[in-house]
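Homework-ish question, so no full write-ups if that breaks the rules, but can someone show me the predicted structure for this set?
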Amino acid sequence: MKIADVSIARGGVPVLEGVSFQLDPGRALILRGPNGCGKTTLLRTIAGLQPPIAGSITGVEDDIAYAGHSDGIKLTLSVAENLAFWAEVFGSCDIDRAVEAFDLRALLNRPAGALSAGQKRRLGLARLMVTGRRYWVLDEPTVSLDRASVANFASVVQRHLAEGGAALIATHIDLGLEEETLDLSAYRAKLPDLQDFDEAFL
Amino acid sequence: MKALLLRDLKLALRAGGGFGLGLAFFLIVTVLVPFSVGPQSELLSRIAPGVLWLGALLACLLSLDRVLALDWEDGTLDLLATAPLPLEAVVTIKAAAHWLTTAVPLVLVSPVLGLMLNLPAEGFSWLVVSLFLGTPALSVIGTFGAALTVGLKRGGLLLSLLVLPLYVPTLIFGAEVARRGAAGFSVETPLLMLAGISAATIALLPFASAAVLRVNLR
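A: Not a homework solution, just the prediction itself:
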């Protein structure tokens, strides 16, 4: 995956400019930066949900599994039904590995609406494994996970990297991966010069 | 694609899925009309095709804000947009699921309600045929409206206002088929128009729906 000179906007206001990095298979990259600096917007742009205002993103077409703030879980379906649905959408049929990896075996037949916030998150993350995609683009994946689950998640990511995958993660906590970090505050977009403000009206 | 359709059908049938909503509304409207119009069976049988068509249309409208809004709220729509499924297919399946869960029950129950409105005997088959041909257009147009308003909180009002004018041609020709059928006239022209409207919306609108959905997901 190659991000070259990408600029992005949120709500019409540029938030990041000139972001460039490269993510090779087997590597993880952690995005850091203060609230509102554009981590989520950058990840959504890379996932293809919105276009960048400048620059190019190459090498990731149809190879991204995106996980945002919400898990995309249907509360009236059971855990197994939720996972099986995503497995079928992404053309794989094996949910067993994901179930084992995120310790969901005991919850399989529970309706997702009866899960706790942390269990829902585990289900949301288990979806990544059934997609069979190489690049995981994760936005705050560890929110509402307990310490053991965070460690478990880190080991799942590690395994994914060992199998030739790659992960781009926006997070504030230390996952204990041997990862590179990228601080996005360095790329903050400069606000347009306010002295020229009137020109638009003249 | 099959997985998404099956999931939507399953969700509609589970608790809180809103499966019976349109059906109950259709039933209420047609049961109350004879009370409000009065016991004049001749008048009732004259207005029956129009009332039934209007009731079915409004019942379809009622469940439209669930078509995409629920998937938007829990983040499923974002994930579907990044899945290996084109958005055009997603909106087509959504419309199909809406048609199967809302419109098909209406079509099936309409002869019974026609009986309550004293619909002439020769009108029953044309009523069912016209609803069967016309309701796919209602679902597809409605999904387009739902895609337009998907990011808005409580966009139901705006959705109705946007969709209603688009529903008018379907209503005119659909009710015309049912009316002419009940009166024993030839129904060929309005029937062909109705089928044409349905075919055209099914062929073209999914592309428009997918395009506005892409804009709304940003």
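Now go work out the reasoning yourself. Hint: Helices of chain A lie at 39-46, 79-89, 96-101, 117-131, 147-162.
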